[in-house]
Amino acid sequence: MQFSIRTNNYQNQSMLNICDANILGKKIIQNELTVHISENYYGDRFVEQDEAESLLKNSSIINMAGKETISLALKLGIGSKNAVKLISDVPFLIIFQA
């Protein structure tokens, strides 16, 4: 499984935007809400699972989208299943770690 990522620093914190590679560029629509999984936000480069795990473990702010991404984060103990939000069956999760 590949993941699409973009990393940067935000207020001296490491920020990771990560999604399942297969949803990059798609629009997720539910009722009046449209979320675009844009290349500008998530699409700097593709990584394999081992690098995705390392990035998830070492980032302070994480914006995640996609079933595989969320599943991996939860398996690593990052985030809570209760905090996951579904939009048209696509899970989203945002983490702020100190």
Number of strands: 8
CATH homology superfamily name? uncharacterized conserved protein from methanopyrus kandleri domain like
Global outline: globular
Radius of gyration: 13 Å
For the sheet with most strands, the description reads:
6 strands, mixed
Per the CATH scheme, the topology name is: uncharacterized conserved protein from methanopyrus kandleri fold like
Low-confidence stretches: none
Number of alpha- plus pi-helical segments? 3
Supply the number of structural domains.
1
What gap, in angstroms, lies between the N and C termini? Answer: 29 Å
**What is the CATH C-level name?**
Alpha Beta
In which range does the helix fraction lie? Answer: 10-25%
CATH architecture: 2-Layer Sandwich
Lateral arrangement of strands in the main beta sheet: 5-1-2-6-8-7
Please indicate the percent range of residues in DSSP E strands (runs of 2 or more).
35-45%
Mean pLDDT: 96
Q: Would you list the SSEs in sequence order as H and E?
A: EEEEHEHEHEE
Based on secondary structure, the structural category is alpha+beta
Quaternary state of this entry equals single chain
